[in-house]
Amino acid sequence: MNLIEIREGKVSLLIPNPKDYEKEGRYDPSWSPVFYNPKMRLNRDISVLALSVIKPKSVVDALSASGVRGIRYYIEIGGIEKLILNDKNPIATELIMKNAEKNNVNAQITTKDANSLLYEIKADFVDIDPFGSPAPFILSAINATMNKGYVAFTATDLSALECSSSFSARRKYDLTCEKLSFSKELGIRGLIAKVIREGAIIEKAAYPMFSLYFDYYYRVFFRIENGAKKVDKLLEKQGYYYECSKCGYREVDYYAERKICPRCGIEMKRYGPAWTGELWNREFLLSMKENLKNFTYFDTLMQVNKLLNILVEESKYVSPYFRLDFIASLIKRNIPKREKMLECLKEASMTHFDYRGIKTNKEIHEIVNCIKN
Ligand code: SAH
Fold first, then answer.
1. Ligand 1 touching residue 250 (CB < 6 A)
2. Shared-domain flag, residues 190 and 70
């Protein structure tokens, strides 16, 4: 295997030379013997930032590939006393060994199936960053997270979560769903709801602390607290979102039944079970924003800064965003300027989920009035 050296954050890494695995001039990271995707840099930068708030003493990177994540956490956060880097692929773990040594990282490197590893160990931060769906690792990852520890999941299977593919949505996340106009946010709510139900099985409450949609993936950080009562409280916020595709009327309910729009008399689209609570813990988010000053070396600094500024605003609103182009088309108007709408609604914000969206606690008729004026 021909290796090249790259830098990311404060570490330098050896990765298989992408040139050797190109097919007809194209390259996909999954074609390489060890996976490394430069497009996930922002995900890793944001995760380093989140870990600077969490300050874990023990970390498990269960699907480590090149080792990039765990090695970055160790070097860029400090204070990590125990680090486990795992991948079931022996070619990957061999490379992880080289990369750990290269960066003077003292890690335990294992070649196990992530699920068996996660039933053997405990850590105060567990990272699940697969290529595809995190669903097969949710229960084991929560099991491995200590009381008051944190676990984070990346999901790239947005076609399931957003319900472009309702069958894989059902298989992976128990979703009964259709694609609603605010599906980008529903996808992450579907993922969070699933994580909460998996935690519920072993009486561990999973509180969403930080949520992100970017590019083609979701990333969510949870705080884990043991206790059946806490779980019961969280489960009260599993719900179904309904939307009328004719008038845009929406509702949240707690059963999966089909519903008729009270205004148009047609059957509404539905999505659930989904988390209906907050997507961010404000204090956690503000601490991340505060800590960003210590990470001015991030390649993605400008993007991360911009994203955090939007998140701080949009986290003031709990209900899903409204899409201005969708609402405008329902009433046969031109798409209004977002700035004009924010001004007209007064209490409203942009959303990172969709540049065409806005967040507000106001009802759809108030948005319609603003579009008309
Ligand atoms: N987290 C990495 C990317 C991981 S890609 C990063 O930030 O760059 C997914 C990795 O998971 C692959 O290396 C694959 O070999 C490994 N993998 C897939 N299924 C696994 C399993 N059941 N147990 C352990 N490793 C697994």
1. no
2. yes
| Strand partners for 348 | 360
pLDDT computed for residue 373 by the predictor? 84
Q: How many angstroms separate the Cα of 113 from the Cα of each of 60, 86, 88, 217, 363?
A: 13, 8, 5, 23, 48
- Tell me the average confidence (pLDDT) per consecutive run of 10 residues in the chain, 373 residues long: 97 96 92 96 98 98 98 97 98 98 98 98 98 97 98 98 97 97 98 98 98 97 98 98 96 94 97 98 98 98 98 97 96 95 96 97 94 91
User: 104 and 164: one domain?
Assistant: yes
Distance CA 78, CA 54 (A): 12
Rounded to the nearest whole angstrom, what is the distance from the C-alpha of residue 86 to the centroid of ligand 1? 8
Task: Give the structural domain span for 165.
Answer: 3-237
362 Cβ below 6 A of ligand 1: no
Q: Which residue has the tokens 């405990």?
A: 122
Cα(21) to ligand 1 centroid in Å equals 18
Residue at 35 is within a domain? yes
Domain harbouring 329, CATH code: 3.30.56.70
Q: How far is the CA of 130 from the centre of ligand 1 (A)?
A: 5
* Ligand 1 atom showing the smallest separation from residue 113 Cα: 23
The rounded Å distance from CA 87 to ligand 1 centre is 6
Task: Return the CATH number at 23.
Answer: 3.40.50.150
